[in-house]
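Hello,

Our lab assistant flagged a job as stuck in the queue for most of the afternoon. It eventually completed. Since we weren't sure the result was trustworthy after the delay, we are filing this so someone can double-check. Below is the sequence as submitted and the structure that was eventually returned. Let us know if re-running is recommended.
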Amino acid sequence: MTLGEDEIAEVVAFHLLEAFRAALDAEDAQELKWRAREALARAGERAASVAAAAEAQRYFERAADLADDEGDEIQLGSGGDAATVSV
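-- returned structure --
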């Protein structure tokens, strides 16, 4: 993502998440899920970078909810916790 894309990471995450929810049975549902999870994590990183710890935590938690396995969830959850602690 470029700097401009970082600034709209939340919007991109929202739209990808809505697309995934609308197409749970679609062929590309898993790809949409992965892209939504990645976008939510980026939105969390962006929020943390501007000292919005509570918002960052919410994005990281939503990304963790979309994780396919426990390792992914722990890694994403840790990111949210780290954002809360470091800000």
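-- support follow-up --
The delay was a queue issue, not a problem with the job. The result is valid. The radius of gyration is 13 Å. The mean pLDDT is 80.
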